[in-house]
Amino acid sequence: MTRPRLLVSCRAVPRWRVSRRFRKPAMLAPTMLAIAGLVLPTEPAQALCLCSCTVTTTAMSFGNYDQTASTPLDTNATVTINCTSVASVLSTADIALSTGGSGSATTRRMISGTNLLYYNIFSNSGHTTVWGDGTGGASIVQVSLNGVLNFSSSATAYGRIPALQNVPVGSYADTLTITVTY
After folding, report:
1. pLDDT less than 50: residues of the chain
2. Pairing of strands 109-112, 37-39
């Protein structure tokens, strides 16, 4: 006898909330021009970003989850930082994801009523590095912010629901906060 396949409708929107933190802008190390030629200082150059940035994301939606499938269900989303500046040189932005409702980045879960569907978000396509806030075994993603006038930088979030979770049909969701520090 064949076991019927049950599809669980998952609206895995880790719904994104966005917050921004600003680093104190650093000054670019001075360069000295000598008569004989250009002389660079011995100290390393520091970042300069006098920017105004916004963050946008695409939705992370897993669609229907088949609890009998032997392979995990994967999807992607993109976090994009759009900046306006006179110039940004050697600058970076750190992108952190909150733990969601679970309180732990390594064991995120979506909820439908009292039912739980475990998932996670990774910073690499191999699904080995959990994207979080830098604590509890999760890492922060860093992107470069180099450009003139209007520029952007993006990072891909790789979502995965592990296979063979026995959960009732429902609409499962979790909410994460994205914090960008630049």
Report:
1. 1-11, 24-45
2. unpaired
Residues 66-80 as b/e (b if ≥16 CB within 10 A, e otherwise) read ebeeeebbebebebe
Angle, CA of 125, 5 and 14, to the nearest 5°: 40
pTM: 0.79
Residue 104 contacts residue 137 (beta carbons within 8 Å): no
Distance separating alpha carbons of residues 76 and 122, to the nearest angstrom: 10
DSSP-derived pairing of the beta strands 109-112 and 92-97: unpaired
Quote the strand ranges of the chain, DSSP E.
Answer: 7-10, 15-21, 32-34, 37-39, 48-57, 63-66, 73-89, 92-97, 109-112, 115-118, 120-122, 141-144, 147-161, 175-181
